[in-house]
Structures
1.
Amino acid sequence: MKEVRYIRAITEALREEMARDEAVFVVGEDVAYPGGSFSATRGLLEEFGERRVKDTPISESAIVGLALGAATQGLRPVAEIMFMDFLAVCMDQIVNQVAKARYMFGGQYRLPMVIRTPCGGGLNAGPQHSQCLEAWFAHVPGLKVVMPATPYDVKGLLKTAIRDDNPVLFVENKALYGLKGEIPEEEYLVPIGQADVKRPGRDVTVVATSRMVHQSLEAAQTLAKEGIEAEVIDLMTITPLDKEAIFKSVEKTSKLVIAHEAVKAFGIGAEISAMVCEEMIDCLDGPILRVGAPYTPVPFSPERFYLPNAEDVIQAVRKVLEY
Amino acid sequence: MQDSHQMLSMFSTMVKIRRVEERLLDIFAQGKIPGFIHVSIGQEAVPVGVCSALRPDDYISNTHRGHGQAIAKGADLKRFMAEIYGRIDGYCKGRAGSMHIASRELGIIGSNGVVAGGIPISLGTAFASMYKGNDRVTACFFGDGATNEGAFHESLNLAALWNLPMVFCCENNGWAEFTPQKVHTRLEDLSLRAAAYGIPGVTVDGDDVLKVLKEAEKAVARARKGEGPTLLECKTHRWFGHFAGDAQKYRSPKEIEEVRKFDPVLKFQNLLLEMKVVTPKGVEEIEARVKAEIDEAVAFAENSPVSGMEDLLEDVYA
């Protein structure tokens, strides 16, 4: 095992997949010569050359459209959109083109492309550089949406995403870029579409994504001191959602809290909550509570009243345990 | 001096497009086709002129008004018709319909219902050609209205910068849906926009198929040699409304009548008769062949089943 930062695990995944498969190329703003504005693609240009690592103008629609066209011809583009907020700039290409091309053209195409993009606040980057918008894309059939929380998961999932023959929206978290974690020396993959029980427990299920996985684990540690054992499930993939993992846990605990950094209203927590109520109402022993951000844009400052944290998860767990 | 065989072939294709579009208007009026169709009557010289300059393994991206392009790129009329009818034997299993016809094997990347939506995608097939080291060219079709979308500008800039093997073909029929060109841009010649990206821009009479072919051949040759993209503006005329059934109340009746004088099919027919490349009897034979092919295609489409509930859920993911 070795210790790497989340950002470097991304670079390793890219490097390994580019070495393994000549069809893989990287495209985006500042990805080649500068090595990426967050340094995710550092060293790739030097190793693989200009043909396979492409700097583009500031043109998100062109970047995503180019990736789509190239994918129809069997190439495996990994496009970077610098901030998740900027997906809004190229929504037509993502929603009306990428997500629909396989289905509406009658299955003629496989679209083995990845769009990598960082979400999340905590760096005072402001309202247009801090959003978590996974709910928008989970709502569009035809995309896969992946949100890894650890260096181990980000490397394994990115390799899987690149090998997947479907369009994958790979949502990293900029506040986690510096996070250190242990990964194997040898090659490994993490499957898309499977959630991971990061901490088993019997008293309450906490389903979390991205940075809130770490906040939920912290909350679980605090709660354990009071004899409350929380089971923390890291979704890892938003779509296709691992419903079985959620059901299995709720069957055991009867209590569910969902924690995401995205705005609570209309977030993925709402979908999970509705789904569990529809299919497992008899297992539930109380309401399903969601932890998420307030219904405002992300403030530049202060973020501490805005971003959900471990304390919010603890309070939600306590509330749900009253039933 | 153009090859007679090629000219006859081009003429046949133009006749086919015209008659297919006329038949579709008729079928549509009978309520037999779901959704909307956008016919290209009056514009036949553009797809035929450009596609005649392409190889079978070249790519095209297409628009909602793309029946001409699909036919000119070699679409099998039976599968084409079945797709417009929304039947399972269509090119896209009936899921695409008129606006989204695609054929991977013919190099028709896809037709797009979003104006300018296909332009960025065509960058990708061109990039793939360069990446793989083959000399396949991508011709990207769009109308005058599309040249005002941001996606158009981003795409021309990137194609120019990376010298992508492309021809950007603007089929300028003077109308962006219900809005005439002089109300949507200050420019008279949209090919001027090419200068903003450092690439050549050419305006050609889009109702003269031989002129379109000549300019298209130049542009395709440039692209194939690695000299980069060209913006080829073909000025043509739209006879009918934006969609079938559009009464065109926004257009003067005089103009609607006058555009028919530019008939590219009749113009080419007269030229071929004059040059004795074809005889009046020869024209009749072509028309008869085309009619038979269309009849067969319509029968095929009408007999093809609509997809079932179980087909609905397929192909979301590979």
2.
Amino acid sequence: MPYLASLTDFLLSTLYFLLTTFDSRLTTYDLRLNTMKISVNTEIALTYLSSRKKQTIVASMGVMFGISMFIFMQSLMKGTNDYFEKSSFSSTAHIRLYSENKVADAHMLKDFLKDSSVKILTNPKQLKQSQGLNNPYGIIRNIKKNPQVTYVTPQVTAMVIYSSGSVTLNGTVAGVSIDEEDKMFDVQTNMVTGNLHDLNRVNNSILIGKGIADKLSLHVGDNITVRAGIGSPMIMRVIGIFATTVKQIDETKSYANIVQAQNLLGKDRSYVTDIKINIANYNDAPKVARELETITGYKAEDWVQSNEQLKAAFKIRAIILNSVIGVILLVAGFGIYNILNMTIYEKIKEIAILKATGFSGKSVISIFLQQAIYIGLIGAVVGIIFGFGITLMVSRIYIGAGTLKYLPMSFYVPHYVEAVCFGVITTIAAGYFPARKASKVDPVTIIRG
Amino acid sequence: MENIALQATGITKYFHDPVTFPVLKQINIEVKRGEFVSIVGKSGCGKSTLLYILSTMDRDYEGTLEINGKMATGCSLNELAYIRNSSIGFVFQFHYLLPDFSCLKNVMIPGLRLGKLSPKEVEHNAYEKLKMFGVEDLALKQSSKLSGGQQQRVAIARALINDPAIIMGDEPTGNLDSKNTRIVFDLFQQLTKEYHQTIITVTHDDDFAHKSDRIIEMADGEIVR
């Protein structure tokens, strides 16, 4: 109940303050504050604030800028991070399972020489493993049992040479089930021309990157010769062209039906080189990847490992932005500190009178700390609105690079909550020291002069 | 003991700047309930200093102070604040109102701080007190817009708001003309006679002092009469 009472107290007094700020003709009595249960400390604090509106507004503006910049910066940072994460997931699965070459060990020797001698292998070499996974569909069934896994799709990756006329180009063909690929990576948004579903309908079809199309001057409906390292060349029909934001991908990558890719390599239908897995929460990828490694025995690479530079960029951005925000809040805090300090010098006689008429040090702290808190809260409320406004405005700035049309901004509620908390904490910290100083005023020395 | 409002025993105080010297030397005062006491003396004899000690604001002294039979010496700051709030009304040499507030609010603030009555009742009482000094018309005016004499009367009204057992004044009529001085004096007398409130004032006004119940004359930090 006391909390409820102080909450209503606060709301009423904020209302009172806002009203008196906008209409100076209103006095305490017009609002009949006496009938409301506002403590006398609050009333004095509010009177001081509203009798010095300019200073109050300047101080609140400091907080407002701090908070709105906080919101803006956080929104920009999260928006950008989200964008880069998302765009990295447009080509990378959360987890990729593949077969990795292993270093030779002594287990074969143990099998042949079944004695107690110690087997030493000097200068072990990498052993070439089959590029394919054993029993891939069994593995997929197994992986699907994991409750965190949302999508699983097999892929055949083939290193190929594209050629058209006399020009050749190195690259990779990803043999995929295009429907699943689209669900996982949203291939559709990258399409420049053509229909990606033709990959299922047209025999010997291929979906090529824009860079390949440009270099080999190919259009939808043209033929392209594709040759995998050891297989025989195949003539395939271009049914679509896609463009990502990454030039390197556009110049090398193409999609084909998984069966086509198997044919290209001269392999059977059970040949799968990668299994791509998406999970519900991509931040759990490292953990899930370790689990899958244990279950399947193959290498499971999570997106964090394959995008370390992305993580580093996130961290650097976070440090830069947080230090900027910190400085802004610090400056706002000093603003409040200064203004309250000045108020206390000006009001030192009044503080002495209050103490002489029976206000304790605690009451005096309450009076001045409340002023800081109200400044902070007013700044917070306006800052939230202002911060939202800036974020909204900036999110309309056109960028138009690759798939990025507008500046990525996120509207994330916890940022606003954090901003208010930081703002209020800063003002309380900045207000406490002047308030304590006020509480220590000795009425006798002041009144006697 | 019942009707002793204030008892000070062996009050000694030193000033340390520029050199340590005693301003008050072994002062003993006993003031009965309902008594009207004037403290007189030349400037610098320590009468104001004594008053600030008696009002509990100054804690830097030797000796003991009892207010309404309760020991005030050694109380915490918060306890002293409560004693001042509930049992002492203080009128300063200069009016000392809070300029941002209306007169009514100035009078009400100590009452609201005490919190014994509802704000409505405090407001009613404040009006009554202002009426006693004939300044009720100014109740809603901002206190900084008043003349010195008007402010002083509001300040006296403020000292009375909690019906304190003891009213202390440091030259309470210093800024008033003779007519208003008489009004204030009559009121003080009425408070002592009818409500048994105790009044201790420091004054330079001999007329005022001679009309009061008792005169304490001080010289060089000692009571001479």
